[in-house]
Amino acid sequence: MAEVTGVTSNVLKRVVRIVVGPASATAFTIDVDGRQYLVTAKHVIATLKKADEKVQICGSGGKCIDTEVSILRCEDPIDIAVLVPRALQTVTFPLPATSDGMVLGQDVYFVGFPYADQALTTTVQTESIGFVRKAVWSAQERKDNFNRMYFDGRNNSGFSGSPIVYLEQGKPGFDFKVAAVVSGYRSDIDQVMKMVPIKPEEITDEDRALNLIISFADGSYRKLTPTDQVIRRNTGIIIAYSIDHAVDLIRKGNIKGPELK
After folding, report:
1. E strand segments, 74-162
2. pTM of the shown model
3. What does the domain layout of the chain look like in residue ranges?
4. Does residue 19 register a pLDDT over 60?
5. Class for domain 9-186+236-252, per CATH?
6. What angle (nearest 5°) sits at the alpha carbon of residue 56, between those of residues 52 and 135?
7. Residue range 131-139: average pLDDT?
8. Longest CA pairwise span in the chain (Å)
């Protein structure tokens, strides 16, 4: 298979930025049984309590428009919601919603709007195009009620709801498929340390083994000493849920999206 030179328009032009209250995130369209639906992460619309609500959808040129949608939510722990608009929101270029043919260890891509930033990535037609990032499918956790996927890559605030897309291994062409919906990233808690002056004769073998000693050019030393403060760190592990959950939710629901033209 030829080397991929970029993510194609059937992905890029289906991804939009959405605004819910003070929060900005990502959503994308899929087509199921001849109708279009918006998919995002469920936590993005957590403040919306009614079955029918309005969200701001930011499309061409970055303009955000209040859009009425009906909301379908997957059951916990699946972090997926489907927004059913009254009219088509994006292009309808083919983008199969499936993970068939995807294998562990392969490259994938995700597209979204980190930190509500979209002005930096517009085409000459002033279409709003999300940031494209790359990852590797690292692991999968399948249980009776959910299919959770893990990817090795850097995810930031605002990418929630982004599509994970891939090319089937060994298949010629550039026919991207969407396999999963970005939920967030695996975090870790690190203790904040402070530097305390220490004399060379006070340094112990344990201090050296734990790499707690910092030496300076003037010959002085500092020991890293724990404080009662912590910081949350991005481990670089992306958490996502299978797109199959969105498709199942759509087919079980009684709300139909707009028909494809």
Report:
1. 81-85, 107-112, 131-142, 147-152
2. 0.86
3. 9-186+236-252, 189-233
4. yes
5. mainly beta
6. 105
7. 96
8. 79
